[in-house]
TrEMBL record:
SUPFAM superfamilies tied to this protein: Glyoxalase/Bleomycin resistance protein/Dihydroxybiphenyl dioxygenase (SSF54593)
Source taxonomy: Bacteria, Bacillati, Actinomycetota, Actinomycetes, Streptosporangiales
Domain annotation VOC: ranges: 6-126
Listed name of the protein: Glyoxalase
Cited InterPro entries: Glyas_Bleomycin-R_OHBP_Dase, Glyas_Fos-R_dOase_dom, VOC_core
Pfam families, per the entry: Glyoxalase (PF00903)
């Protein structure tokens, strides 16, 4: 079972490492852990995100399903802080803030961002914390 000492690891493509670093570090506030000629490693909200240089990654119009990643915030304050950061830093949106499953136990607030390589990042918060998983 995962504990707070463990870190989830995700690797994604990046067409340009400078643009990728700009987005994740300067816009989202992630911590740059390491940078090499072929990848950057980030502290992505407490987990490890590795962006591998993939200049030949084909351009495509991204779709939210089936491939996206992000963070489900346990605390509404943390979700709201991210929303403020996105607004202040004018982070590119794929889908604006929305409420899904309104009036049900699965009700949650969500926003979807688009990185420079067209990877989609969903950030959300459930009103009922039991719905996080």
């Amino acid at each position: 079972m995962r504990t707070s000492h463990d870190t989830f690891h995700l690797a994604i493509p990046a067409r340009d490492l400078d643009e990728t670093e700009q987005f994740y570090v300067r816009q989202l506030g992630c911590h740059l852990a390491r940078r090499y000629a072929d990848r950057i490693t980030l502290n992505f909200f407490g987990d490890q995100l590795v962006c591998h240089l993939s200049p030949d990654e084909p351009r495509r119009e991204p779709r939210l399903y089936p491939r996206h990643f992000g963070v489900t915030f346990a605390r509404r304050d943390d979700f709201d802080a991210l929303l403020r950061l996105v607004e202040i830093r004018k982070v590119p949106l794929f889908l604006p803030l929305a409420t899904r499953f309104n009036g049900t136990v699965e009700e949650h607030h969500t926003i979807v961002l688009r990185d420079p390589t067209d990877n989609l990042l969903e950030f959300k918060h459930y009103e009922d914390p039991r719905m996080m998983y």
